[in-house]
Write the structure tokens for this entry.
Amino acid sequence: MTYSIIGSGAIGSALALHFAKAGVTVRVANTRGVSSLQPLADQLGSSIVPSEMADALKADVVILALPFTAIKDVLSQEKHWAGRVVVDATNAIDFSNFTPMDLGGKPSTLIVAEHAPGATVVKAFNHIGANIFKRDADDGRGYGKRTLFLSGDNKQANDIVAQLMTKMGFAPIDLGSLSTGGLLQQFGGPLTMHSLVSQELDMTNKSGPDIVEH
């Protein structure tokens, strides 16, 4: 299976970091061209492959780490989406006042899907800030894994994204369909910017898991 990240800003670079840590090869493209991506590849290693946009858009799993308003122009460059997974890591933000865009109650990912006809679209990698996402998947305190939410209308596609998150060391939580889970995790939803930690149950402790104050 091939992967690509479209976008090399804060979230795109954080994603690239976790691909590199997991040793998973990923094509990375942006609107500025291949040469602008070489410093990122030099920093993170051979797992990061600077690519032309046209090549990156042909991956089996395409992760969108772009401004929401750029999605239409970028996705229109590829015409054949059938059988592939598009991961929507964008947030529909009105930057004039930093509030959610008025989408009429529609999940933002369904709007993304309209621009990639035939693709299976999953919402993921969007609900925590890039500064948090750049940290180790293990939350750094040694007692659990950082959780990442995902949602989508196709279980097989959701599983593909969940498996990728697991390879990166995160604890994925599938929120179900876009009409429910997508609205929960998109910008302005109740799960936006919640950074949670999944703790493993210590079965040697009969009284239950340790409670760690933080």
